[in-house]
Amino acid sequence: MKPLLLLLFISNFACSQYWGGQEIKESQLENWIPKFVLKYAGSYHFGESESESELHLYFSGDVIIGQVHNAYWEEKKVLSRKRNFINLTHIEIDKKGNFTSDQYHGKFVTFTNESGEVYKALKIDNPWTSWIEDSAYEIGTKTRLVFEHIYYGNYPKSSYRKLEPNELKKMSKNELTIMRNEIYARYGYIFIKNGKMDQYFRKQDWYHAEHKNVDRFLNEIEIFNIQLIKSLE
Q1: Contact predicate 182/162, CB 8 Å
Q2: Average pLDDT for residues 168-192, to the nearest whole number?
Q3: What residues pair up with 63 in beta bridges, in sequence order?
Q4: Taking Cα atoms as reference points, which of 150, 143, 136 lies closest to residue 120?
Q5: What pTM does this model have?
Q6: What's phi and psi for 226, nearest 5 deg?
Q7: What are 165-178's pLDDT values in tens digits?
Q8: Cross-referenced Pfam families, in alphabetical order (predicted)?
Q9: From CA 130, how far away is CA 51, in angstroms rounded?
Q10: In terms of Cα–Cα distance, which of 105, 71, 72 is closest to 88?
Q11: CA–CA separation, 10 and 41 (whole Å)
Q12: Residue 142 β-bridge partners
């Protein structure tokens, strides 16, 4: 991840905001309301150092996908840092730039730094960053969304758009099997040791075996595509 962060802390009496640990003024924030809601699609980078995270937000047909990518430390035999993924469900964005989901809500804004540079951003009112106090806001700055930098492998499209049966019918059973399992592999699923998929994905430089179960990480599109691929295998 390559995140940036704005933190916005408020109380009942005074407001103070932070960007990468630097305090900013309320006057540096403005509402961001583009002509088309699709302009909000992108990667939003939060935090710095070990508190880095990203929210990837995009539109696929009538579906809005919002997925948080962060990490945590796990200590068993050795201390290791593992990736974590949070899917936001029932996302809605209104004409005023308000952002809501089942898990988090906020507003799209712009931030102007002391040099006059303007950043498009998303303010989250109840952030997923655990150390931030309940009264705090967290603001992530927007960058271009590049699916190939998020969804690795030979079939990244299986994670960001619903596939069509006709395009899959041209593929062999082996290709379909790899495509389906690649969805799990991107989340670090641990395959059966020395099995066909384990041997295949361990040869991929992007693959890292981390989790015994990744079902909770799958987004709405991936769940749809897994079922479709299974029906054709």
Answers
A1: no
A2: 97
A3: 60
A4: 143
A5: 0.86
A6: -60, -45
A7: 999 998 999 999 99
A8: YARHG
A9: 9
A10: 105
A11: 27
A12: 44
Residues 7 and 123: their CA atoms lie apart, in Å, by 9
Token pair 């271009």: residue: 144
The Cα 112–Cα 23 span in angstroms is 13
The whole-angstrom separation of Cα 137 and Cα 143 is: 20
Nearest-angstrom CA–CA distance, 64 and 87: 11
* 3-state SS string for the chain: CCCCCEEEEECCCCEEEEECCEEECHHHEEECCCCCHHHHCEEEEECCHHHCEEEEEEEECCEEEEEEEEEEEEECCCEEEEEEEEEECCCEECCCCEEECCCCEEEEEEEECCCCCEEEEEEECCCCCCCCCCCEEEEEEEECCCHHHCCCCCCCHHHHCCCCHHHHCCCCHHHHHHHHHHHHHHCCECCCCCCHHHHHHCCCCCCCCCECCCHHHCCHHHHHHHHHHHHHC
Contacts for 178 with CB less than 8 Å, ≥ 6 apart: 154, 155, 197, 200
3-27 per-position pLDDT tens digit = 333 333 323 333 445 555 556 677 8
- What the block records as the tokens of 185 is 């592999």
